Amino acid sequence: MTKIASGLERAFAGQGFAEPSVEDLRDAAGVSLRTLYKYTPSRDDMVHAALEHRHRRYLERVFDALPADRIAALDALMERVGGWMETETSHGCLFHAAVAAAPGDARLRALLERHKGEVAARAAAATGLAGRGIDLLLILEGLTQTWPLHRDAAVASAKRLGRALVEIT
Amino acid sequence: MTKIASGLERAFAGQGFAEPSVEDLRDAAGVSLRTLYKYTPSRDDMVHAALEHRHRRYLERVFDALPADRIAALDALMERVGGWMETETSHGCLFHAAVAAAPGDARLRALLERHKGEVAARAAAATGLAGRGIDLLLILEGLTQTWPLHRDAAVASAKRLGRALVEIT
DNA sequence: GCACAGGTAGAGGGATCATTCTACATCGTC
DNA sequence: GACGATGTAGAATGATCCCTCTACCTGTGC
Predict the structure, then answer these.
(1) What residues of chain A have any CB closer than 8 angstroms to a CB in chain B?
(2) Which of A62, A72, B20, B145 has its CA 20 to 30 A from that of B97?
(3) Does domain B2-168 correspond to CATH entry 1.10.357.10?
């Protein structure tokens, strides 16, 4: 159920992965404990479901229908990530936070890898910078991490670095 | 006691912030529970002590005695961060991980802010790129986050972006 | 009108954990 | 060689948490 995943995502994004108890998660999901455990049979599964949901939402919101022009696409990309941070999360990347909270969970690590891989590929495709996926991912990661402290200045910095990357390509 | 802080740092870096029990932390610190609680009266204080210790070690290892030449300093900076990741942490930045684990802790957030501010200032000073602290911080954050997945390719990418930043300055 | 699939509310078990407290050992100093 | 400060070992406590289970409700197809 997407309503459950959506509620779980909101709870983890707002309170982190350690703090919310399963009863908090139940309230956020808006279902009973029994139903919650039916779709996500353990707390780890709740984390997983929340991240799967976020993955889809992130890709859609950040990469859909970017401008065709390369510079415009880069600028729009950075602005959308800034906008995502503004409305969706107060601090950093939820996938990295999840892995940091449970460093031993291989399933989570695989999900992180898949998420970042797809972000890099989509960024490279959207800007026509084939083979520069890692550079773009590095800028996006840097933006995501510095945004909470520097806000618009971080977005401006990411745009600057994006342009610089184009110039040396 | 620096021995306690050092052991705590090692435990949190290896197991994350949620997993290790206070008894695990006691073992890592190499003292008794009583002594541990004497110097760090709560588990939160243990986290704080570990991060203070890491802050000092990081600055020393990454920024001490960098080359005078700008490009050489930038390259060395990226390589040192890569080396730090290699030996000191398997995943991401410990300060961000700590804040992600306890999003409500204002003391932790202040420590993160201080740490990142000092990193940005030192990076700008070491490379003579005054006013470009945010750009450098963004690259360093991006490197730290992408290193676990891309290793040497992440370091190479950070060097490339550092050079590109110099070219447009 | 009824049976049933799937929902809610919420109490309870079993385990873990942070913190405190008691009892004993060690070591430097006079 | 005795004393006080400081350390160790580890049990006890009180709370929290994940997960299961019981008992009851609701809506839909026939």
Answers:
(1) 14-19, 90-93, 96-97, 99-104, 113, 116, 134-135, 137-146, 149-150, 153-154, 157-158, 160-161, 163-165, 167-168
(2) A62
(3) yes
